[in-house]
Every structure is written in C-alpha cells, then in structure tokens.
Amino acid sequence: MAKNTWSAKINRTVTSVLPVSKHRNGQCRQCGACCHLPNRCFFLRKSRSGIYRCVIYPIRPLNCRKYPRSESEWITPETCGFMFRPDTRPGSGKRIRNWIRTHHLAGILNLLRLISMHLHSRG
Ligand code: SF4
C-alpha cells in the first residue's frame, strides 16, 4: 500500500490520466479521508451532520475524481466506501500494461518514479 506522502500524491496526480481499475467496486460515502492526502484540502468543508463535501466538486481535479484509481494507490481502506476485488479472468493482468504501451505512457511513469525517488532522497 502507498504511504500518505507528497510523492504518493504526485504519483496519483500523474497516473490519474490512466483508467480506473476494473477491480474497483462500491461508492464514495463522503468520509473525506482522501481529501486529507497528505494534508487537509483547502476546498474541503464538513457539514453539521459530519458529511464532507468539496466546494469545487464539479471541477475537481482528475486525481480527486478518480480516487481510489487503483488498489496500489488506495491508502484509505479503513473508511473508504470503495473496495477492490481481484480480476480472475484469464490474461487480465496484461491489459493495463498493453494500454500503457499503446498510449506511450511508460516514459511518463518512469519520469514520475525518478521524481518520486528524488523527493524521497531529499527527506
Ligand atoms: S476515502 Fe473513499 S469514501 Fe472517503 S471521500 Fe475518498 S473516495 Fe469517498
């Protein structure tokens, strides 16, 4: 599982152009946990009933719109209304790799990994 760090957020931002995992089920229950990654979002508001809402919801960025996009980027399982189930269909593991290859995103992902490693090395 990814850690709640700025490099994880950068990773989610870059990979948000990728499709949401087909293994994802469930729905958002407005717990607000993902709006605290890695710190509380400026646009987050809490109602008296305890429900969180985003004041820029219609124009929220892709990484917010798609969270949790994949199980490896999912760091709020305790409260999140989504869950991931393994895809047991034959050949399912190759689909995302083929999609990345087709869309020439491997270079972008490698660049992201380098940025992430650089940020980690700086502490
Ligand atoms: S952590 Fe999951 S349930 Fe909570 S606000 Fe984010 S997407 Fe919705």
Structural commentary:
Helix content is 34%, strand content 10%. By secondary structure, the protein is of the alpha+beta class. It has one domain (6-121). Strands 1-4 form a two-stranded antiparallel ribbon. Strands 2-3 form a two-stranded antiparallel sheet. A hairpin with a 5-residue loop joins strand 2 and strand 3 (52-54). Helix 1 runs antiparallel to helix 4. The two termini are 20 Å apart. The structure holds iron/sulfur cluster (SF4). Iron/sulfur cluster binds next to loops. Iron/sulfur cluster binds at residues 28-34, 67, 76, 79-82.
What is the fold's blueprint, element by element?
Blueprint: H1 6-15, E1 24-26, E2 44-46, E3 52-54, H2 62-66, E4 82-84, H3 92-102, H4 106-121
Antiparallel strand pairs: 1-4, 2-3
Helix pairs in contact: 1-4
The structure holds iron/sulfur cluster.
The site of iron/sulfur cluster (SF4) has 13 residues, from loops.
